[in-house]
Amino acid sequence: MRSRTTVKPGLLLQPFVLSQLGGLLIEQMVEGAGITPSEFALTSWVNVNGDATPTELSRDLGLAPTTLSAMIERLVRKGQLKRVRRPEDGRSYVVTPTAKGRATQAAITKRFFPVISRIRQHLDADEEDVLATMRILEEALRSTLAEPE
């Protein structure tokens, strides 16, 4: 009988497993904050990187435009983000955090750093090497998605 531990996930299943495990940790961090793990990813990006257009967010976070649009709408309703029209183009807008959104981010961030510290304690490789490898896979996945079928 084959041991389950000898079967290793491949180039698509391994990222899925990582996403699930990371998602569980993020769920713990956002508990009681009024936002979901996916919403936290979006608000974190905006809080760290600054105002962004939906196109930028879709590209950088790897979210489908329709998924992102619905998420922005929910976060606007929750008072976490606001849309600000771009003066040079009255049709487009950037997303920016509200005061409530910054406060939520600060509260979750207090939980974030201890979790990251615990992950680092269990990491048996250099953090930057792990991230570099993950970025290589990200680029390969993006390139594959950009190819015609």
Give the biggest beta sheet.
Answer: 2 strands, antiparallel
N-to-C series of helices and strands: HHHHEEHH
Q: Label the structural class.
A: mainly alpha
The total number of structural domains is: 1
Distance, first to last CA: 38 Å
Please name the CATH topology. Arc Repressor Mutant, subunit A
Q: In angstroms, what is the radius of gyration?
A: 18 Å
Report the principal-axis shape: globular
Number of helices: 6
Average per-residue pLDDT, rounded, comes to 93
Could you say what the CATH architecture is?
Orthogonal Bundle
CATH class category: Mainly Alpha
The count of β-strands is 2
Helix content range of the residues, please? Answer: 55-70%
- Beta-strand content estimate: 5-15%
CATH homolog superfamily: Winged helix-like DNA-binding domain superfamily/Winged helix DNA-binding domain
The low-confidence runs, each spanning 5 or more residues with pLDDT under 50, are none
Lateral strand order in the biggest sheet = 1-2
Secondary-structure blueprint:
Elements: H1 13-30, H2 37-49, H3 54-61, H4 65-77, E1 81-86, E2 89-97, H5 99-122, H6 127-146
Antiparallel strand pairs: 1-2
Helix pairs in contact: 1-5
How would you explain this protein's 3D organization?
The model has no long low-confidence stretch (mean pLDDT 93). Strands 1-2 form a two-stranded antiparallel ribbon. α1 crosses α5 (99-122). Helices cover 64% and strands 10% of the residues. The chain has a single domain (35-146), classed as Winged helix-like DNA-binding domain superfamily/Winged helix DNA-binding domain (Arc Repressor Mutant, subunit A, Orthogonal Bundle). By secondary structure, the chain is mainly α. It has six helices and two strands.
